[in-house]
Amino acid sequence: MKLNGVLIEDTFAEAFSMKVARVLITAVSDRWVRVATTEATGFGTSIIGCPSEAGVEKYLTPSETPDGRPGAYIQIFQGKFEKLEEQVLERIGQCVLTAPTTAVFNGLSDAEKQFNTGFKLKFFADGYDEEGEIAGRKVYKIPMMEGDFIIEENIGAVGGVAGGNFFILAENQMASLTAAEVASDTILKMEGSITPFPGGIVASGSKIGSNKYKFLKASTNERFCPTLKNKIEDTQVPPEVNGIYEIVVNGISVDAVKDAMRAGISAATKIPGVLRISAGNYGGKLGKYKISLSELL
Amino acid sequence: MKLNGVLIEDTFAEAFSMKVARVLITAVSDRWVRVATTEATGFGTSIIGCPSEAGVEKYLTPSETPDGRPGAYIQIFQGKFEKLEEQVLERIGQCVLTAPTTAVFNGLSDAEKQFNTGFKLKFFADGYDEEGEIAGRKVYKIPMMEGDFIIEENIGAVGGVAGGNFFILAENQMASLTAAEVASDTILKMEGSITPFPGGIVASGSKIGSNKYKFLKASTNERFCPTLKNKIEDTQVPPEVNGIYEIVVNGISVDAVKDAMRAGISAATKIPGVLRISAGNYGGKLGKYKISLSELL
Amino acid sequence: MKLNGVLIEDTFAEAFSMKVARVLITAVSDRWVRVATTEATGFGTSIIGCPSEAGVEKYLTPSETPDGRPGAYIQIFQGKFEKLEEQVLERIGQCVLTAPTTAVFNGLSDAEKQFNTGFKLKFFADGYDEEGEIAGRKVYKIPMMEGDFIIEENIGAVGGVAGGNFFILAENQMASLTAAEVASDTILKMEGSITPFPGGIVASGSKIGSNKYKFLKASTNERFCPTLKNKIEDTQVPPEVNGIYEIVVNGISVDAVKDAMRAGISAATKIPGVLRISAGNYGGKLGKYKISLSELL
Amino acid sequence: MKLNGVLIEDTFAEAFSMKVARVLITAVSDRWVRVATTEATGFGTSIIGCPSEAGVEKYLTPSETPDGRPGAYIQIFQGKFEKLEEQVLERIGQCVLTAPTTAVFNGLSDAEKQFNTGFKLKFFADGYDEEGEIAGRKVYKIPMMEGDFIIEENIGAVGGVAGGNFFILAENQMASLTAAEVASDTILKMEGSITPFPGGIVASGSKIGSNKYKFLKASTNERFCPTLKNKIEDTQVPPEVNGIYEIVVNGISVDAVKDAMRAGISAATKIPGVLRISAGNYGGKLGKYKISLSELL
């Protein structure tokens, strides 16, 4: 099929189950929402080498937050709830509690699994904490040098989805990059999903393991490398393609991941020079979810 | 003494020795320099709970980088070289190699200690890497989906300084915050130093340990909490002060830390509503460096 | 009355009738939407000295625009339709047609008054223009050095409202400024209104005419100047207030102006150090609209 | 000749004489420097349809400004000093005096021509102005609602250069656009020059007059339109080129314009997909300055 003149390959993205916590962070201004959420979700692209996968889901207007200030949802992913709880505590404790003017609320109040992150962090007050209520939520007030830090007692977590993805193949690198930028900017405005890689984009789409080195968990996907297309026999890079970026999407549900992929692909196909959309999978053997591009669109 | 009408307290900042690696990262545009360096230095405020301390040192114009593209220096801190080398490998491998259009160069070519991070990362090419030279530096070209990723063979590290700091005391929280913003924006334009906390600012200045809970490594510094000043007897918050932020400065040398503190304090004292500048120390018992505010200015 | 602990004065904002054109501009990326709309609405704070009043109304996601790309509404104000039509032609022709990747659509398709701005600009194509259709709208394609520029045939205009306003009085300048920043950031996310002054904020609230100089149309409103409060007898600045900013709101309808004022005031009252909200009027003698703060909230 | 593998055409840019005023604007933070200077230089791309040509020259650190705050130089261009003086007064009075926390200083203190813009604007104080001195400069303090506005007595102007330019020809529109973005971002960091068009880039390079319509002053340069290259006989668009942007550079001297062109071209040639650099001229018949690309590099 074609979308906006761009070929959509007849393939599917293969996605996985991971645990996800969702935190709603507010601050006095857009600047501090952005800074706190960026710091808290940094060094969080892939659990291959990062302590967790993490990203900003969506920025929120004052009318959308419990305390009437600007805010954002962030998501943090790990394989198991125990490790996830540790990461939530450390990322909130080190990167949000320390950030100017922030407050922290539960982003999944209805989830069965609840971490008592706020309860744990109130000990930082060294006995000077107080309980309070904001918009019906139980919060702790922790006196600090700036004033008081507010945090809700619990942070919810659920079984989520990681590794939704699509590839943008273009005439050259800059066309592919611009399309990837616009796709990730578009997904940032959607609910329920994150793009954990830097700026939402993967420059280095990889294969599992390595042909040459047994000690590697992942290595470059040489069949999709434009600069190798004339050097290897089994290249998958079409002759007219010279730049490929991948967008990886995680989310709190498979529907959130699908919505993000749909919007991102649609935005990417608007960029002049984009030729094809594809997706990454392992033949359906590894992941729980198969997201067909054609069904999506 | 007074600076721009603001009282500079007669005290000193106490700073510590840590190991620091310095990396020069370039990309096709300012956007991707910013994104890659922010991701690579995220979740890096304090080694109390983060895998390392990290931050962007300074953005560079194309004329200041080896490959003539926009760039930035980042710094990564850990207690020992072994742990630091791991962190450099993981942060570069997960957050820079994966980011669109980046290249990585040695930020401390003359240092005695050199990590062969580039040599290790070239295995990602699964045998398709090539050697090259850029501005006299030995680099590896790693074919990827976007094109080629460039990385210099080594990344240098030295003994650095962590925990340089100053406090901004103001009439209210917003005056203190604006001054802290301007101070950290100013330090971002200086060479050799970083401000590892979110947006360069600490909202939650802490004391070592806790009066009440033995299991805590650090807790709120209640004597500097404006909202407690009428509730505790030994408050250090002057009656006219209602907001305090701390700026923490790390650097590759004590001179770099001092230059940053000087410029940051000078900028902060320009903000209406700022009343005093102070600094944090442990009576000189813990840290190797004592940086006197009055000698600094 | 009080809102979030802040006194809302029992007064009203006095607003005026002006003609307003509304233009929907799209571009390949958020960057170019922002740049083109900012350039096109610059030098547009007040018709006292600017060729028109102008501002960005709201940024739009790809799903909200006719061509599926990022976009924004802008508004341009003048006293009469003739002058307004000139300004629309010049601002679009000089600042949007010239900007990379932009397309221009009618922001008020249902308005009775329609300017044929697109028809006029197509002559720039020197005969090489073509007609097309996007989302049911008749457009012209104008070949340019970058590729094709797209513009809809007509731009609609209506009778709008200018000069809606409120004052933010705070303990000091930085508290007032932060509140004004947050208020204007909040209004930027709302539909139907603009804040024409720089960054949405007026630093220099004025009175009509001058006490001392007959040749002046407007001069400083000395009774609201914090630095004069101890020098003049009829000051209106309460003793505890040391910083005041004004937000001016224009819109395509009085309801749009009211919605913006309500959201902006609500956001401003969340900022620590804000003491009062007031508004500017001329005793109700000059403007068509009286917007009571207490009825608004 | 070739630069970074990109063909530099053997041609020259033709530039013109215009009068230019240079203003140094400071503010409490980077945000307000950016907002005030952007508003003051908006609607200022070309005197064909704008009241003047204008742009931000360069952002300044606190150590580079008279009052130790963040700042920027802006430049405003007109054909004659009389019209220029009017524009300086209106743009400063409407867009800088009204903007939060700004101060205004002379950017060309040594110029023979000096406009007494500060003297004229002090009447806004309605008699409450005071004289002062900052870094040896005579300034006026004008009480306003925010606090005091500071402006130096005079603003200098000289004979400057307008219309320096180069073209970036690339494989497709996005490669050309990215290169133009990077070129204009690079020039923004240089001293003495501005790029007056939106975001520094011209999408609509034009020819003087029109082949078809006598009433037009300028029309599309059809020989450089990629979408017309197969439709007209005298196209100048090489077969492999599908996107062209122009960068226009104005400056306070021909050397400043040349420095900007050199840095911008060098940065543009680093972008993958860029094929050629050219420049616009009128055979040398109209402009005072001929800037040869090959001599420049």
Question: How would you portray this structure in words?
Answer:
The structure is a homotetramer of 297-residue chains. Helices cover 22% and strands 35% of the residues of chain A. Chain A starts with a strand and ends with a helix. Chain A is elongated and about 70 Å long. The first copy, chain A, has two domains: 2-14 and 159-296, 2-Layer Sandwich (Alpha-Beta Plaits), CATH 3.30.70.520; 19-158, 2-Layer Sandwich (Alpha-Beta Plaits), CATH 3.30.70. Chain A is of the alpha+beta class and 297 residues long. Chains in contact: A-B, A-C, A-D, B-C, B-D, C-D. At the A-B interface, helix 1, helix 2, helix 4, strand 13 and strand 15 of A face helix 1, helix 2, helix 4, strand 14 and strand 15 of B.
Give the arrangement of secondary structure elements.
4 copies of one chain form a homotetramer.
Chain A: E1 2-3, E2 6-8, E3 12-26, H1 30-40, E4 53-60, E5 71-78, H2 81-95, E6 103-106, E7 113-115, H3 117-121, E8 130-134, E9 137-143, E10 148-152, E11 155-170, H4 173-187, E12 193-194, E13 201-202, E14 206-208, E15 218-220, E16 243-251, H5 254-268, E17 274-278, E18 289-292, H6 293-296
Parallel strand pairs in A: 2-17, 6-10
Antiparallel strand pairs in A: 1-2, 3-5, 3-6, 3-11, 3-18, 4-5, 7-11, 8-9, 9-10, 11-16, 11-17, 12-16, 13-16, 14-15
Concise structural overview:
Chain A is 22% helix and 35% strand. By secondary structure, chain A is an alpha+beta fold.
Number of helices of chain A: 6
Are there runs of chain A of 5+ residues with pLDDT below 50, and where?
none
Molecular shape of chain A = elongated
Beta-strand content of chain A = 35-45%
Helix residue percentage of chain A: 10-25%
Oligomer: homotetramer
Write down the overall mean pLDDT of chain A: 97
Q: Count of DSSP E strands of chain A? A: 18
In whole angstroms, how far apart are the ends of chain A? 9 Å
Which structural category fits the helices and strands of chain A?
A: alpha+beta
Tally the structural domains of chain A.
Answer: 2
Radius of gyration of chain A using CA atoms only: 21 Å
What name does CATH use for the topology of the largest domain in chain A?
Alpha-Beta Plaits
Q: Tell me the CATH architecture of the largest domain in chain A.
A: 2-Layer Sandwich
Major sheet details of chain A: 16 strands, mixed
- The succession of helices and strands of chain A, N to C, reads EEEHEEHEEHEEEEHEEEEEHEEH
The greatest interface between two protein chains, and residues involved on each side, is: A-B, 82 and 82 residues
Highest-level CATH class of the largest domain in chain A: Alpha Beta
